[in-house]
Amino acid sequence: MARVVLLLLLLMAPAQAQRFVVVAFHDVADTREQLTADAVTSSTLVTFFDWLRAERWTPVSLDDIAAAREGRRPLPERAILITFDDGYRSTYTRVFPLLLAYRYPAVFALVGDWMAVPEGGTVMYGDQPRLRSDFITWAEAREMQASGLVEFASHSYGLHSTVLGNPQGNLLPAAAAWAYDAATGRYEDDAALRRRVEQDLRRSAAQLRRELGRAPRALVWPFGRYSGPALEAAQAAGFRFTLTLDPEPADARRPLTIGRFYPSQAPDLAALANNLRFREESPPALRLLCLDPGVVAAAGDMAAQDAKLGEMIEAIRRLGPNLVALDSHARAADGGLGPAWYPSRLTPHGADILGRLVWQIRTRGGADAYVRVPLDAVAATLGEARIPDLVADALRHAMADGLMLEGAGGLAAAVPGPPLDPAAWVVRQRRAAPVTLDARGATALAAMRRAEALRPGLRLMVTSEATPQAGTWPAPLADLVLRAQVPLGDSGWAAPVARSRLLMDLAPAARPVAALRAVQATGVTGLAYCADGAAALADAARRGPAFSSAAYPLRP
C-alpha cells in the first residue's frame, strides 16, 4: 500500500506543477461611472494585485509556462497568468505603471486592423465606432515590451469581427463559424475556413514582427470562440499558445487550450477571487427545455419564421430555462429520421434554421443551446457507422454549447465507485482517454469526439432511463445526464453529490405548477421539460415562476 501511495504522489506532483489560472481583463477605468461591461476600476485592479501578493499568488509569464511544459522548471503552487485583451489605451496609462510597481508580468493582445488605423481615425469595435486614441500606439507598445514585463500576443488581424453565418443574416464570430455565401447559397468547407483564418493570422504575425521586432507566439481568440479548423490554422501559422474564454484552469501541457476567467459587469475583489477557483459553490439550478425547430419551419416564409422565432424566444424568457435542446432533424412517424433542420449531406433537409435558432436562443434567449440527436433513429435510417458523420455535419452548422445524445448505450451507464470530478475540463480529459464501451456507447463517444474536434469546449448531455444507484456514478464521460420520463414525486434518485449534473425530465401533470413546487421542495436542482417541452412553452407565463432558473429554489 505504501508503494501505491508513493506512486500516486509522484504521479500527482507533475500535474500540480503544470496547473495555473488565467484572468482576462480588458479596459480599466478610474471611476465606476466610466465603467463599460468589460472594464474594472483602477482601485479594483490595485486591490486585486494586493490580494495576489497577500495570498502568495505568483504572476507568471509565457516563458514560465513554456519552461514547465518542457520540464525545465515547475510552476509555483499558485501560478496566475494576467492578460489584457484589445489593446485599450488604459493598458499603457493605468496598467503598465502598476506592472512596473508590482513587477508583475502580463500578456497584452492586439487586434491588427485596429492598430493599423491612423491617429485621428475611427476603430469599429463590433458595431460601435471608437476613436483610435482609445487604443495604444505602436510606440507605447514598444516601450512596454522593452520593460521585459509585457509580452504582446495576436488577437488576430481582422477576426475580431463577424461573418455571415446563415441565410437569415446572423453575423457570427469569424473564427468559429463556417461562413455562408448568400450569392451561391453555400457554406464554406473545413479547408476554406482553415485557409481564411490562417491567412489572417499570418498577416497579424507579420505586422507584430515588423512593429515589435518579434513574432507573437500566443494567440488570443477573438470573443474566446474558435473552431477546430481555426485551431489547425493557428498551429500552421506558428502559434504555440492559444487562449480562450472557457472558464477553467489551464495546464502547461495543453498550451493550445488555455482557459481564462473573464471579469465582467464590474466585479469586486470577492468575485475575482471566487471565480479563480472555477468551482460551483453549490449545485447549480439546471433548467432544460427541449424544442422542435419544425414549429418555426412550419410558419411559412422567412419573415413568418422570424416572427414565430421571436414569439418562441419571448416564451423562453418567460419560462426561464438556462439550457435549450433543439432537434437536429424532424421525427418520422416510423421512428426513423425525418428531414434535417440544416443543409445535411447525408439526409434530406427541410428549412435551414438550426444554426439560426441556436444563435438566437443563445444571444436573445439567454440560454445555452444544445443540438439533440436521436441515435436510434439515425442508426435506423443511415446505419450505425454513419452516426459520427451526421453529428459532425450538424455541429458545423450550429454554434452550439453542447450536444445531447439520445440512446447513447453504455456511454450513458452508471459505473461503480466513488463520486468523480464533474468539472467540464476534467470530464473532457476522461472522454479523451482510452475506454471500453459497448458498441453503441463506442459509436456515441466517437460522435462526440468528432463534434468536439469541430467545436472545442462542446459539452455532452446523454439521456438515461436507469436510476443511479448508491455507490455508482452516472455517465462519467458526460457533462449532464437527463433521466427521461420520471414520474412526478420520484425524486429520491438525485443524490446530493450528483445534483450538479443530473436533470429530471418531468412527465406531463394535470397541475404542473404544483408538481414543480413539490419536486423542488425535495431538493432536486435539475429539472427538464423535454417530453412536455411544447406544452411547457405554450404555458410559459404560468409555469415560469416555478420553473425558471432565476427563481430557484422557490418564489413565494
**Fraction in beta strands:** 15-25%
Structural shape: globular
Total domain modules: 2
* CATH first level of the largest domain: Alpha Beta
CATH architecture of the largest domain: Alpha-Beta Barrel
Strand neighbour order, sheet with most strands:
17-18-21-22-24-26-27-28
In the predicted model, the low-confidence regions spanning at least 5 consecutive residues are 1-14, 488-493
- Topology-level CATH name of the largest domain: TIM Barrel
- Number of beta strands: 28
Q: How far from one another are the termini?
A: 54 Å
Give the averaged pLDDT, no decimals.
90
What share of the residues lie within helices? 25-40%
Radius of gyration: 24 Å
CATH superfamily of the largest domain: Glycoside hydrolase/deacetylase
Q: Total helix count? A: 19
Largest sheet: 8 strands, parallel, barrel
Coarse structural class? alpha/beta
